[in-house]
Amino acid sequence: MDSGIEQAIGADLEDWELLLRFLPEGWREQARTLGALRRAKGFADADRLLRTLLIHLACGSSLKETSVRASSGDVAHVSSVAIWKRLRQSGEWFRWMSEGIMHAWVTRGPQRALPGRYRARLIDGSSISEPGSTGSDWRIHYAVELRTLRCDFVEVTEIHEGGETFTRFPVKPGDLLMADRVYATRRGICHVVAHGGDVLVRLPLTNLPLQTESGAPFPLLKKLRKLRIGQSGDWTCWIEHEQSNGERIKVRVCALKKSKSSAQQARDKLRQQASRKGHAVKAETLEAAGYVFVLTTLPVEALSPDQVLEIYRGRWQIELVFKRLKSILGLGCLPKHDPEGAKAWLHGKLLVAFLVEALVCAGDALFPCGYPTQPQATEAGR
To answer: Which of 50, 140, 310, 321 has the most other CB atoms within 10 Å of its CB?
Structure first.
């Protein structure tokens, strides 16, 4: 865990007060409003409750060790069971504080140049399992801005509450949502376009039917076969509207042919995956693995096909975000068994992640006094 947060949680009261400057205005009152501090015996106030819970969440201490450390530091004299009960009731409080930190601090990072008027946002989801589970139990839906690599939206859901889709994310005019092929669905694309945004997604070969201007099936593989290595393709096609009311959405397919070695690696991976599942790979799938092709609703006058493909390379940044969350914050294995406790623990871990991001943002700003001034509260942080 980040040593700055561990130090702030420790015995130094000044460091703890510094960390509290990153929290949104009214966070203490919200502890009672949102149920975290109701009937909380042993915790004198919201400060002591938060400090105790962060010993568990940020420092990786067990509940029993957290109880000992909180008592020895004269933070709170409570049992491990009492800490667990407070944690279970603090999920919405954690979520509220995370949202406030995100809007007040994390989204204020430095801007990087990006062609056009678009705000590129990287979209992805990650599954998390409970101990002993044979499958996934929870999913985190996450969005970060490409220019700043800062998170601007997060949601935690149970697996049965639905899969990864653009419809979970708020969209504003000018947003360019970038994601992997699982998000390439008519429903998700229609959601983004209806709210004034655009999409840039990896295109599955068959799951998203494309049409020519006349309404005939778009011959994607036939078009791809004409490409040479280093030559980009750019074709206009259409997809039917989700409501099937005769409306269609105009899209573009931009593509590049892979090198022989890259194509062979992709095909070998497909064969290995198919072998583990006990089925054969279709010839068309193996052929398509020799190309990189994406779908976008961006007009050609906004970005050239080479620019579209170059920008899409940035999507891998969100994969690194999830790797950091799981390796550094221990988000990959969920040590809670009941749904309410599990969700609270996840939101607590995300709160720690946003505090780390906020500390980084403040450090980048090089405040002469060594700490930032308190930002103005935003609507989302109230």
So the answer is: 50
**CA atoms 343, 65, 45, 369: torsion sign:** negative
pLDDT digits (tens, 9 = 90+) for 26-85: 999 999 999 999 877 889 899 999 999 999 988 878 899 999 999 998 899 999 999 999
Which backbone phi and psi does 59 adopt, to 5 degrees? -95, -10
Question: Are 166 and 285 found together in one domain?
Answer: yes
Residue 331 lies in a domain: no
Q: Are residues 37 and 185 in the same domain?
A: no
What is d(CA 237, CA 220) in angstroms, rounded to the nearest whole number? 10
CA nearest to 360, candidates 146, 12, 57, 107: 107
pTM to 2 decimal places: 0.71
The verdict on 11 and 158 lying in the same domain is: no
What are 357's two structure tokens? 């991001």
Contact assessment for residue 76 and residue 43, using Cβ atoms and an 8 Å cutoff: yes
Residue 328 lies in a domain: no
Residue with token string 């995300």 = 350
CB 143 within 8 A of CB 151: yes
Same structural domain for residues 196 and 304?
yes
Range of the domain at 298: 106-322
Q: 23, 97 in Cβ contact below 8 A? A: yes
Give the total number of structural domains in the chain.
2
Q: Does any domain span residue 84?
A: yes
Nearest partner of 374 among 117, 93, 109, 100, judged by Cα: 100
pLDDT tens readout for residues 237-286 = 999 987 767 789 999 999 999 888 888 999 999 999 999 888 889 999 99
Q: How far is it, in rounded angstroms, from Cα 277 to Cα 216?
A: 34
CB 208 within 8 A of CB 242: no
Domain co-membership, 88 together with 148: no
CA atoms of 173 and 176, how far apart (whole Å): 9
Residue 329 placed within a domain: no
State the virtual CA torsion across 39, 44, 45, 48 in degrees, nearest 10. -110
- Say whether both 88 and 113 belong to one domain: no
